[in-house]
Amino acid sequence: LDLSNCSLHSVPPGLAEAATAIILDLTENPLTTLPSGSFLGFIHLQSLAVPLTLECPGGSDAWQDVTVDRSSRLCQGQRNPCNSSVELAWPCPENSVCAPDGPSLVQCLCDNPFHGYKCLREGTFPMLLFGGILGTATVSLSLLLWGTQRRKAKTP
């Protein structure tokens, strides 16, 4: 994705839609900062070129190779923060595993069959029970409102 020389003063809000990008060029733009969540979900990004005034997102530790040119900084080879020797600031809860979610960003995914808040619920979501209760409540409330509001309807 080539966004070089596009007169960008900030990261475009639609950039998240390009999360599958492998190569991204942001050089020759008057960017002042790269907000920390700008590259959330960019797990396939392998080469990022930014203006010289900016650091690589996540710092140089998030990349295998950082090269400085005359007018740009090239960040190559995104590292997996889950495999680093440095312990994570927020380790994943029990019954979950760490997964990369962009340069130096991680997400915790629940192991099977766990789900829910902090992966504490075991088994599958009770779809039949949930749907049955929701359907019964909806039909009951609809019949109640239909019965009580019928007298207010005007007949021709």
UniProtKB/TrEMBL annotation:
The UniProt record lists the keyword Nucleus: no
Keywords noted in UniProt: Membrane, Transmembrane, Transmembrane helix
Name by which UniProt lists this protein: ARAID factor
Lineage per the UniProt record: Eukaryota, Metazoa, Chordata, Craniata, Vertebrata
Transmembrane segments: 125-146
Species this chain originates from: Rhagologus leucostigma
Location of the EGF-like domain: 108-119
Biological process annotations from GO: positive regulation of osteoblast differentiation
InterPro entries in UniProt: ATRAID, EGF, LRR_dom_sf
